[in-house]
Write a structure and sequence with these properties.
By secondary structure, the chain is mostly helical. The protein has a domain at 462-568. The chain is 72% helix and 1% strand. It has 24 helices and 2 strands. It has helices at residues 2-15, 20-35, 39-57, 62-77, 81-99, 104-119, 123-141, 146-161, 165-183, 188-203, 207-225, 230-245, 249-267, 272-294, 319-334, 341-357, 361-375, 381-398, 401-414, 421-440, 446-460, 467-483, 487-501, 508-524, and strands at 545-546, 566-567. Strands 1-2 form a two-stranded antiparallel sheet. Helix 7 (123-141) runs antiparallel to helix 8 (146-161), helix 15 (319-334) packs antiparallel against helix 16 and helix 21 (446-460) runs antiparallel to helix 22. The longest helix is centred in the middle third of the chain and has 23 residues, at 272-294.
Length: 568
Amino acid sequence: MEQFGTLARQAAQRLGPDHRDTLRARLERAEMWAMSGHPLVAADELRQVVGDTARVCGRDDADTLRARHSLAHARALAEDVPGALVEFEQVLCDFQRELGDEAPETLGARSFLALWWGAAGDTAGAITALEQLVADREELLGRDHPELFWARHNLAAYRGRSGDTAGAVSAYEDLFADRERVLGPDHTDTLANRAEHAYWLRESGRNTEALFALERLVVDMERVLGTCHIELFGVQRSLAWCWEEAGDTAGSVLAHRQQLDDVRGAFGPDHAQTAEAAVTLTHALIGRGRELRDGSRTPPSDPERRTAMPEETSQPRPARLEQALACFNEARGLTDPEESPGVYGIILHDIADTYRDAHDLKEAVEHFRQAVSYKQQADNPSDLATTMTALANTLVAMGERTEAREVLEQLAAEVPKIGDTERRAAVLHNMALTYEELGRMGVERAYADAVSACRAVLALIDGASDPGWYASVLKDMGDVYDAQDMLPQAHAAYEEAVRYTRRIESTSTSLITVLIALGRTSRRLGKREGETTVSGDGAAVNGARFAAAPSQPRGASPDALSDAAPTP
């Protein structure tokens, strides 16, 4: 970049600021800013170059049109895609008028316009434009021209993005054969072709083949391009993702960590590539930490409802949990809480979850509190609800009834902000179960709040389409009534739960659980032993006594509920 700046200054001193070569040197420097990951800087300089070139050479001069085209590209890279598309379309018309349809500049403008149409979401439009461009370039330039190869390259990519991943793989295989024959195996275009081919192998589910292809490609790119080339970094990142998808999360973390070190060394700490490498490493660390933490759970459980065990802080934490904490804390160190409060809150939640699994409830609560404070700064009420629910349940496990109640009241204010109806209902269901636990601990009006939350859930879900969930909520509501000795209300809720449970296939365990509760309530209401008001096969318990299994919240593993064994 300094060399381009020096060239532009020397040209201005020797030739004058308005000389065409001076203007071209300034244009090339601005284009390099865009290519090196600084599109906003590039756009500012290009606006000045466009104005000066138009003033000196004329608005329709080829150099002015090229500068306008580069400005449109910089705007697109700076995420002003709508404005860039307008400029691309105008520049294309001007290229066609001034230089003709067959000029390289015109064909290049068509290529960029097609690519940014695709980036804006118009995949079909991009494919149509690229198909026309391939035909025109082949007619004008011949079958073996590198520019035709790039048109075929981009067309294959957008076919893959349209869902035809197998077609993309096949197209890149054909294109690789042509590029290797014409350009040679070590040409940068041939190497780029291999990278895309590996990407679409992975996207089409052929992950093992993609791994082998990327491992060979990394070796060849290091030999040809060196160890600090930007294209090599992209391939290394793809290889790390392939390892992760293959289940080697530890290897993926090592690869992402090495890449961050390499990118930081090549571009510095403030470059966009460095920031992107830090983000990918952060996600890899979170995934690895969760794998380490969750691998110690038997069986896996609902992260919002998981019951915290009594504190055992005197016991050393298992090695897997220590390793998980190390991953999460490294991810935390890579994340700016001011720029990404939501991600920072997610990491804090994972740390809290790990402490909870280690039975260190004080540390868990402290990190859940911090997670809530950061997630409140992000615009994701559903994710915030996850942490607030976990905080409330951990406080309940610690016996902190007052703060748990306060957290639930704050959560109630967040629930209406959750856009997805099913997710909103799931949060309310979990709140109901937590209120029920507070009721058992003697918290005033907690049972009433549990019933209100259950009723809110029933108003949101459809019993016809999801009878299992509907029945589960009715069963939980019956349990709350039963705990208050409100037997008629409990009986009615259990009856409805039985009715909806019968609509589910293979529900013997769930049905028995509800029938037990209904039978016990019936007996307590003074009915004959073994008799229920429910009609139909299997409605009577006929004297057999069963140990009732606990109710399961939404999202809990169905395997956690086992057939209750009859007792004599």
